[in-house]
From TrEMBL:
Record key words, sorted: Cell membrane, Membrane, Transmembrane, Transmembrane helix, Transport
Protein's name according to its UniProt entry: Spermidine/putrescine transport system permease protein
Gene3D superfamilies: MetI-like (1.10.3720.10)
Transmembrane regions: 12-33, 53-78, 90-115, 135-158, 198-217, 237-259
The species this protein was found in: Abyssicoccus albus
Membrane topology: Multi-pass membrane protein
Residues of the ABC transmembrane type-1 domain: 57-259
Record's subcellular location: Cell membrane
């Protein structure tokens, strides 16, 4: 009786997976073999291995790595600080609150900061320094991307830090380890599952960013996400766009395998 009830409870989930996960992937795969004239072809895959697409893929990886690295560098100390505070759940909520704001609104807000007569140039003018071009630069693109991804990196790291048994840290101190040695030999290894989950959550979306590249980088940066958007919306080449999407899915699966967490909850319990 209970086993039958469990089957019916899980049925909507299976239907959802079939309709919104598996079927789109199957359609994406088959469409990648279609030309603009709706004939079967391998030309899209051959085009992907030309230098222009290989260069774009490499640049996407480089920018995704930079964004993930800076996000980790900023997020880890913040997660440590929050974990050491008394009302840690309250401070965590404060950090997560910006994720409730639409990404497009946050991006437009940064345009007001980076524009020629924006906040940064007004600060420079106070010190009698010349105006600088901040908007439409790789630096602005990385800053905005890091800002948007920070909460998604903090949350899994914070969860892993919370799971560390305080007795292990006390034992480390009792055995003569300094705070730095305890951090290196106890806290970092035991929080690696959260770091791996954070890398997955940040690196994979960073590969497919497209809106920020247009609004902040001014199309000076072309990522895999930008290329997919361009093929679907501007070139109307659905086959080529799907081919790039297939490679993006393959890359995402490889990244998930490489950064696979040993924690059954993947550091995402909260």
């Amino acid at each position: 009786m209970m086993s039958n009830i469990r089957k019916y409870i899980g049925l909507p989930y299976l239907v959802w997976i079939l309709l919104f996960v598996l079927m789109p992937l199957v359609l994406l795969f088959f469409q990648s073999f279609q030309s603009q004239e709706n004939t079967l072809t391998l030309a899209n895959y051959m085009n992907f291995f030309t230098w222009s697409y290989i260069k774009m893929t490499i640049m996407s990886f480089i920018y995704a790595l930079i964004i993930t690295l800076f996000t980790l560098i900023v997020s880890y100390p913040i997660a440590l600080l929050i974990n050491s505070l008394r009302h840690k759940q309250f401070w965590l909520l404060i950090i997560i609150l910006p994720t409730w704001i639409n990404v497009l609104l946050k991006t437009y807000a940064f345009i007001g900061v980076f524009v020629k007569d924006g906040l940064l140039n007004n600060i420079l003018n106070v010190f009698h320094l010349a105006d600088q071009q901040f908007l439409f630069t790789p630096m602005a693109f990385i800053i905005v991307s890091v800002y948007i991804f920070i909460p998604f990196m903090i949350l899994p790291i914070f969860n892993s830090l919370q799971d560390i048994d305080p007795a292990l840290i006390r034992a480390s101190h009792d055995l003569g380890a300094s705070k730095i040695e305890t951090f290196k030999r106890v806290i970092i290894p035991l929080s690696m599952n959260g770091v791996k989950t954070g890398i997955q959550v940040v690196f994979i979306p960073a590969l497919s960013l497209f809106m920020i590249t247009r609004l902040i980088a001014g199309n000076t940066i072309v990522t895999l996400g930008t290329a997919i958007e361009q093929q679907f919306l501007f070139n109307q080449n659905f086959g080529m766009g799907s081919t790039i999407g297939v490679f993006l899915v393959i890359i995402m699966i490889l990244i998930m395998l490489v950064t696979k967490s040993n924690d059954q909850y993947g550091g995402m319990k909260s």
